Design the sequence.
């Protein structure tokens, strides 16, 4: 191989490496934006339960009067009248899940203590499903 071909090959390989490095950087930026978007949507405003079923049985009334405030620090508050129960939450953009935990909550709030797979979302609603003790639960939260 002459010097010209070696230089061309070196430039060609370098451009491929830079292209893939750039793709990784773009992907990283996209993932960061996606994570930020999830957090921004969840933490802007309060949410109420619009639908909640366990094994196809409607249990929405258990959440009547509750409003949920998700905070950027990973905490969540379940607010009902003058009572606030604190919990935690986190999202996983790759798995499209949200995990919630209300360790001190009543049995209704305990229903939230699972990993929820997001099935549909927008800026004013989130639909999710979870398997809890062999039963499929579905939930739809809407922004108040």
Sequence:
């Amino acid at each position: 191989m002459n010097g010209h071909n070696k230089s061309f090959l070196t430039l060609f390989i370098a451009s491929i490496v830079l292209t893939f490095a750039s793709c990784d950087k773009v992907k990283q930026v996209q993932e960061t934006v996606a994570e930020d978007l999830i957090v921004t949507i969840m933490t802007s405003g309060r949410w109420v339960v619009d639908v909640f079923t366990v094994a196809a049985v409607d249990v929405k009334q258990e959440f009547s009067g509750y409003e949920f405030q998700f905070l950027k620090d990973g905490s969540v508050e379940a607010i009902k009248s003058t009572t606030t129960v604190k919990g935690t939450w986190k999202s996983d953009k790759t798995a499209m899940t949200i995990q919630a935990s209300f360790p001190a909550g009543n049995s209704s709030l305990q229903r939230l203590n699972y990993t929820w797979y997001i099935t549909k979302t927008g800026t004013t609603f989130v639909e999710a499903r979870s398997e809890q003790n062999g039963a499929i639960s579905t939930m739809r939260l809407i922004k108040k």
In short: The chain is about 30% helix and 40% strand. Strands lie at 47-54, 57-58, 66-70, 75-80, 83-92, 97-101, 115-121, 125-132, 135-143. The radius of gyration is 22 Å.
